[in-house]
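User: quick one - fold this with NDP bound?
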Amino acid sequence: MSVQTKTVTCHNFIDGSWTPSKTERVEASINPANTNEIVGYVQNSDARDVDQAVKAAVAAQRAWRKRSGVERGQILYRVADVLEKRAEEIAETMTREMGKTLPEARGETARGVAILRYYAGEGSRKIGDVIPASESGALMFTTRVPLGVVGVITPWNFPVAIPIWKAAPALVYGNTVVMKPAQETAVTAAKVIQCFEEGGIPSGVINLVNGGAEVGQSLVNHPDVDGITFTGSNDTGRKVGQLALARGAKYQLEMGGKNPVIVAADADLDEAVEAVISGGLKTTGQKCTATSRVFIQREVYNPFREKLLDKVKRLQIGSGLDPQAWMGPVVSEKQLEKVLWYIEEGKREGAVLLCGGERIQDEGRKHGYFIQPTVFEHVTPAMRIAQEEIFGPVLALMPFDRLNEALEMANDVEFGLSASIFTKDIGKMLSFIEEIDAGMIRINAESAGVELQAPFGGMKKSSSHSREQGQAALEFFTSIKTVFVRA
Ligand SMILES: NC(=O)C1=CN([C@@H]2O[C@H](COP(=O)(O)OP(=O)(O)OC[C@H]3O[C@@H](n4cnc5c(N)ncnc54)[C@H](OP(=O)(O)O)[C@@H]3O)[C@@H](O)[C@H]2O)C=CC1
Ligand SMILES: O=C(O)CCC(=O)C(=O)O
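Assistant: Sure. Structure tokens for the protein plus NDP:
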């Protein structure tokens, strides 16, 4: 078996220099569409590297916070220009390292550029309010100051957008950053950091340390890290939150979803089918906002199912670099095993497999982590496939008679991230908005789909009840000072 190697070795980025880990250990980052291809080597760092990065971030803090927001924003505009210039190369690296299709990777990279420009503009916007004081002649107002050093821990499913939507607001509001991206997509993350470097970010203001759980944990535990922003699984998120709380650091967690779509009898079924396929199967179902449960009113259950199956069976699965492929592989062997385990569990619990359910291992795809898009029916709310986040291309269909019943089943999970309904009835829309447990509510639109200028986050166990993106980022990345002035 020939092993194709690319020579790129990514170092940590500490105090403005690309620095090998003190451990002298590296790991290969592989292409999930062809595990014989090594995309690059990344550092497998430890607590010593984290400490060095945090020291650099602390040292850079004072000068960075002293700059005006406008000046910090100017640097982010330059970073956006560099990312835009390198968009094709970075999108291709993302596809090779993470598996999503090239059009999706291009879309995500363009979104990264837009997020940088949005937060660059934030540097020129207001950070406080004048509030009437009770004493005549006195001036009372609020202003905001950065937290200090922020630890950014990110997953592999959006390796450009998520690091940027956390780091860009942190930086523009005057924090310095130590980033720990997922090991699966560390080469892509390193390229994002190169854009900050090329854009002229001062040394120590943004730092990158690659490595596994030990690195993440050291960052969360470091006494000089003032805030932690995390996206990933619930298990890890809970640990991060507990450690941060124990030492009094501010934290923000964005975690899983088990997102429902309700299809009412009056829905446009073609639109609903398109949305379920796009929301459930794009990025191979690996989005926290992905559709995983579909509740269909009984009158339209059969026509909806037939239309859905007809389209799902025709989806092209292959390497994300193949222009014919609509869906790529899952990201890793761990993810492959997890998804296949849930498919077996669904069958064992009595759900009926309508299509898919198998790993794809024909000649062209046997070296990749490809899974057929999978649809189950006769799923009951108590089954594990109806309760737990699978994070793969698996849909569960469930019929309902009355909207109340659908809402009850939709809410009967521990998550509350996103949810959508397809209906033309304004009364049903309003009941849905009122009753559904979700931070992101979508009407006649797929469950995935996040706008960078709007608050993003979930209810219940999907988040730490905080929000990120848009103006919501100001709440997390700054502290308020209330000022009273008697002249
Ligand atoms: N909400 C979302 O968007 C996401 C949800 N998930 C869910 O999580 C499942 C497992 O995926 P996985 O990649 O393991 O997710 P994790 O939550 O473990 O990983 C997210 C990030 O946290 C880091 N990390 C791991 N352990 C710790 C720790 N103890 N302290 C601090 N940071 C840590 C990871 O590092 P490392 O690179 O070493 O893993 C990664 O950078 C998926 O199947 C899916 O259900 C996954 C990704 C995104
Ligand atoms: O749907 C999106 O664009 C973002 C989803 C997300 O934040 C995630 O999966 O982690």
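One thing worth noting: The chain has two domains: 9-255+463-486, 259-451.
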